[in-house]
Amino acid sequence: MTFKFDELLVQIKRYNSQADLDLIRKAYQFAGKVHAGQKRLSGEDYINHSLAVAQYLVDWKLDSSSIAAGLLHDSVEDTGTSLEKLEKEFGKAIADLVDGVTKIGEIKLRESKTEEFVENLRKMIIVMAKDLRVVLIKLADRYHNLQTLYVLPKEKQIRIAQETIEIYAPLAERLGIGEMKGRLEDLAFPYLYPEEYQWLKKYSTSCYKQTNRHLEEVKKKLHKELAAEGIRAEIQARAKHLYSLYKKLLRPEIDKDITKIYDLVALRIIVETIEQCYVALGIVHRLYKPVPAKGISDFIAQPKPNGYRSIHTTVFTPNGKITEIQIRTHKMHEEAENGIAAHWYFTQQKQKGAKDSQVEAGFFAPAEKMNWVKELVKWQNEITDSKEFINSLKFDALKHRIFVFSPKGDVFDLPVDSTPIDFAYAVHTNLGDLCMGAKADGKMAPLDYKLKSGQVIEIMTAKGKKRPSRDWLNFVVTHTAKKEIEKHLRKE
Ligand code: MN
After folding, report:
1. Based on the number of CB atoms within 10 Å of its own CB, is 155 exposed (0-12), middle (13-18) or buried (19 or more)?
2. Distance in angstroms (rounded) separating the CA atoms of residues 110 and 261
3. How far is the CA of 133 from the centre of ligand 1 (A)?
4. Distance 99 CA to ligand 1 centre (A)
5. Ligand 1 center–CA 115 separation, angstroms
6. Rounded to an integer, what distance in angstroms lies between the CA atom of residue 73 and that of residue 107?
7. What separation in Å is there between the alpha carbon of 20 and the centre of ligand 1?
């Protein structure tokens, strides 16, 4: 796919009347000059890659500096342009962004030995925490690279695909960019599990078609009933991303039976206000009975840790079909699709003098949503270089949350005073139920041990044991752990 600079400018003007178009134009010309004559392995002109990255940043409605840095992101690594030169031409902020993207690119997680892996991951978090726009540029870069991954040698394909699934996709999720997470995973999926991918693609296509036909009816009905209550809603049918479908199929309770997956295609009702979300929920339940075992999740009253908000309900639609319905406002929708990027956009809007009434109507991201990011940035500012960080492991600077790592290097963000049990339940309910011992940084730790940021936590399980202990309730701090333990106790 080729991208056109003029079209990019048109789109930028549409969402940001204050954009520094001269800066963006200058960056484009500069990138054109330094990449002149360079081709990507795919045969396309190099500048098309720079434009692609800029395009994704524009899709996220990012600021002028990010877009300029996106256009320039490979100029240091691939053309030998010096950072000094970039700084002279474009200022320190943009040079820093490009430097951050280059640095992340140099950290090859998959080529590192196990013991270096977590360290490298930490390094990566630091670079990104300096300025989160670096992450967004890197994600855009990775997204475009994956689209032309087929040109690379097989080993590289696998390394990049693996790194994408293990690092970049969770990162996108962590930043609340759920849509990008799904796209990255789906692009990496066929390289990692070619057979499973082919099987699932064939297997799911007919199911998708059938479900979609069924949902057309439901959509019509909902539109009508919502309109009767004076609610103008947008209703979308959204197919589950293939890789996330694959992971769900592997769960023991699903056992590769696609008919047990109720959100294969989910319906999304998008309305104007939070009040309308609840009215819409009432209408949905009047028309279609909720499925008792599935229940309703109100992520508006209780947002997910990454800030995700929506109401989810699973209902019986005609012919006994079970369907998941998600209800949210346009603002929540934008946030769910674009995550932290949406936060930037809304902050920009606010600076331009948005009305207070809009703020109160939930038009802006709640402050606490971005807390962990802010803490990370704040703490990062207190540490002058990454060497010092690795020596001191100053993760403690995070006041209310801790970050711990699984042995594979997955990052878990937990409240302060979390214990191995909280960690186990955060990883998986099953792991919590089976937990009987834990190691923190390789050393045995009691189950009520208070985890510290930066530790690698390993959970030991007992085969067949599936009973949490009542004592655990005395020390666990997360909602999930409490809920799961209580659920078991009630059963007994
Ligand atoms: Mn690149």
Report:
1. exposed
2. 33
3. 15
4. 13
5. 28
6. 16
7. 23
Model pLDDT for residues 225-260, shown as the tens digit of each residue:
999 999 999 999 888 899 999 988 888 888 888 878
* pLDDT recorded at residue 378: 43
* Average pLDDT along the chain, 492 residues, taken 10 residues at a time: 90 87 96 92 92 93 90 91 93 90 74 57 62 85 95 92 84 76 95 93 85 90 95 91 90 82 88 96 94 85 79 89 92 79 55 40 35 44 37 35 71 84 91 92 92 84 83 90 88 77
Handedness of CA 392, 397, 399, 402 (dihedral sign): negative
Classify strands 296-298 and 311-317 as parallel, antiparallel or unpaired: antiparallel
Q: Looking at the annotation, which residues are catalytic?
A: 77-78
Please state the pTM of the whole predicted model: 0.68
Q: How far apart are CA 140 and CA 152, in angstroms?
A: 19
